[in-house]
Specification:
2 copies of one chain form a homodimer.
Chain A lengths: L17 E5 L13 E6 L4 H10 L4 E5 L2 H9 L5 E3 L1 E2 L2 E2 L14 H4 L3 E5 L1 H9 L5 E5 L4 H10 L3 E6 L8 H14 L5 E2 L1 H13 L3 H6 L4 H7 L2 H7 L9 E4 L2 E4 L3
Parallel strand pairs in A: 1-9, 1-10, 2-8, 2-9, 3-7, 4-7
Antiparallel strand pairs in A: 5-6, 11-12
Chain lengths: ~250, ~250
């Protein structure tokens, strides 16, 4: 656009709440994060596993960037479950990896889990000044959207992406939330419109849609196709994980 | 994505050329720009006016960021046409603004024009290390796509956006180019897939599609609706502007 044409919707433009999408954490500096409730999205697999774990009674989940940080919790002697993977396998000496199948009631109820997720932690860290930070995935889509609609705040859907790159799965989920909010008086920015239109294109079979992407083959090689399918289930859960200090806990209704 | 799952297509992945989309200049540092032919895209209105001006025989177009830089060319005493706008009106003392209607044969044939475009210049500057930089708009869509297909290089479609923000019109055009390349053996990244799917959603009436965007009202206020319509015409021109030093000139076949 020419320099003199402002295309951006400022927060609470036109007297309405904004529902905006940040397509990768690299674009977060363009937003006044403190004006928003932020939803962090990392569909494969961090935020899906977090939603499932909190639903299944995990007391808290602590996201960290690196396997070494995760290991440090063991050395502290605290009674945490430690989750860390490399190349799709659980790192030796850790309790489990990032597969949502590890976050069952039997394993996580009443426990605190330290979860290694580089992209998710990066997005959380950059969003720290938000009014509130919650966690979204297809698993808690409708519960999350309904709650967002009850808040009188601007919403920023932050796609964790991969190493700051745009990715389709996180964007599609952002579009799914926009789809539930768009008729509730929210003002959408261009990225929210785009995300929603992509969701419309893919929603009839999200798994098939995402197979078009460049990393379909790679995911296959990692043997996490079952995880992928699991993460694309809509409304399996209702818990909304919220950040309190360093911990993600269940939002109280 | 989890830290251990690489979703990004590296250049020339799978032995094929990459057709990748950089959704805003803020994401350019994520690409090895020197591995690509870059197409700079700033549909409303810089790159549309540049395509039209070069088609109509302008000897060269020099893009600059600021009105003051543009004015400096006058002080140099050079016989350039100076184009600068503020708030949709030609700045006093300048020859014309950014409307493509100013770039007719009668006005520009044989001339060098200094064009003020903040976002376009920003994108050009950040792309400087590319193998080649060309200019795209709906006006030269097919000529540009055909030429790109004859080059044995990775293609990076750089959306100039607005102050580093994502915008729909530049992304839709990137998707239109991907549409012409996608069956020619190019490997697409997630952003290219997304841009193409958005183009599929909007292509039946791009003008109507873009009216959904947040800035439809703003463009109306600026009174540049006729410019917008003009910029959305497909294949009105065949010239491909290419950057040589500081100047955009016609690419020789």
């Amino acid at each position: 656009m020419s320099e003199n044409i402002n295309t951006q919707t400022p927060p609470l433009a036109n007297g309405g709440r904004g529902a905006h999408v940040c397509l990768t954490p690299a674009l977060l500096p363009l937003f006044n994060v403190e004006d928003y409730i932020v939803v962090v999205i990392d569909i494969f697999r961090a935020t899906s596993s977090i939603c499932y774990g909190i639903e299944n009674g995990a007391e808290a989940i602590i996201p960290v960037s690196q396997v070494e940080e995760c290991a440090a919790y063991r050395e502290k002697g605290l009674d945490y479950l430690l989750a860390a993977e490399r190349d799709g396998s659980v790192v030796e000496g850790f309790d489990f990896g990032n597969s949502p199948f590890s976050y069952t009631k039997e394993k996580v109820a009443g426990k605190t889990i330290v979860l290694t997720t580089t992209n998710g932690t990066h997005a959380l860290h950059l969003s720290r000044s938000a009014k509130k930070i919650v966690i979204g995935s297809f698993l808690n889509l409708t519960a999350l959207s309904n709650w967002l609609n009850t808040q009188n705040e601007n919403i920023l859907l932050v796609c964790a992406g991969w190493k700051n790159n745009f990715n389709l799965e996180d964007t599609l989920f952002a579009g799914a939330v926009v789809d539930q909010l768009k008729d509730k008086g929210f003002v959408l920015d261009d990225a929210a419109i785009a995300a929603n239109d992509l969701f419309q294109t893919g929603k009839h079979d999200i798994n098939v849609y995402l197979k078009k992407t460049s990393h379909g083959e790679r995911l296959k090689k990692l043997g996490i196709e079952k995880d992928i399918e699991f993460c694309l289930q809509i409304d399996l859960t209702t818990a909304i994980p919220v950040l309190e200090g360093e911990k993600l806990v269940k939002l109280k209704a």
